[in-house]
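Minutes, methods subgroup
Present: GH (chair), OT, SY

1. OT presented the first of two proteins processed in the latest run. Sequence and structure tokens recorded below as shown on screen.
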Amino acid sequence: CNNMDGSKSKYISYSDENLKEMKSIQIFKGFEKEINSIDFFEDGNFLVASSKDDSICFYSVPNLELIKKLYNKTYGCENAVFTHNKDAILCSSNKDFRIMYWNIYSNEVLYSFLGHLDLIIDITICYKSD
């Protein structure tokens, strides 16, 4: 497999021994409880992470910094994924099973998709079109 710079990738199989040899490059902080999802924007420059503390954090990956932290105490936050716009995400509620289209720039839930009867365990975006 080729990397973006043309070099070859080296894959390492998972084992307890090689996991002990790995080290963290960067730790993004900002949550009071465990993280339940992460997603990178398509250009790799932004990261969104949601947490069981009903918050979403947005990070600049190149600058290794927290840009914004938002809360949704009414519906909770899980399965946060970027849309085709870095200022908008989809995420699911862990309280009433809705999917929210959330503008992170204005901090507004623009639309809620209702109808699920149980916990939503994953959300994916079609990258070919909106």
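2. SY then presented the second protein from the same run.
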Amino acid sequence: MKWPKSANTGTKGSLTSRAGGLIVTRDGDVIENLSFTNTITVRAKNVVILNCKVKATAWYGILQDDGSSNLTVENVEIDGTGSSGMTGIAIQAGSTIRRCNVYGMVIGIKVWGPNFTVEDNYIHDLAERKTDAASRHFDGIANLGASNGVIQRNAIIMPPKDGGTAGVFISSQQGSVSNVKVLSNLLTGQPSYQAYAEKASRPMSGVVFDGNYIEKGIYGYIFNSSGAAYTNNVQWDDAVGPVPDPVKAWRSAA
């Protein structure tokens, strides 16, 4: 099994630098081969962001506003520079994040709308300048109320020693969650739990964790108060061993 790393995610080739960020308001725009120093905000439908970099101290690297849909983000690099409270990429309905290299913020990817795909991304070196515990709730991928989606083949490395909440955090605290599949991801590091399936104030059903490689978090592998299906996952504890061969091969690869 080959999970992503820097070599097969993020940008390729030279980029044209643009100071500041960008607000996209035209449906169908393609934003390609550019480097930004502030947020790309999408307020249109059917936008594609391809082979771009955002290096910024901001609340978001890429933000898809309410009312827009069908955003595609591919081969993008987000460097949060350790900025306080930042989310790397936040998407709404019908959108896809693929082959992105995301690091240097509190939350790597957040999904807010239904019918989403998050696949083949490398999320690592999450960071927060503030040292108080309330600011350091790291999540690799967070879903607080989005349905009908798939999270697959991502490699997520959570910070060591009290490394936040979870690699994949799913909770119905902001909206109902149904039909979400978490498939064949690598979840490693030291969060509280590597995975969360938390039934909060709204319903949750049809959540599936299948075929993932999951290292033990500080308190365990998965916090599951929703009845999520948990099948065919490979669990291990670095402190005890043995580390599964596919994980060892991935760690040693370039």
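Chair's summary of item 2: The first strand starts at residue 16 and ends at 18.
Next meeting: continue with the remaining queue.
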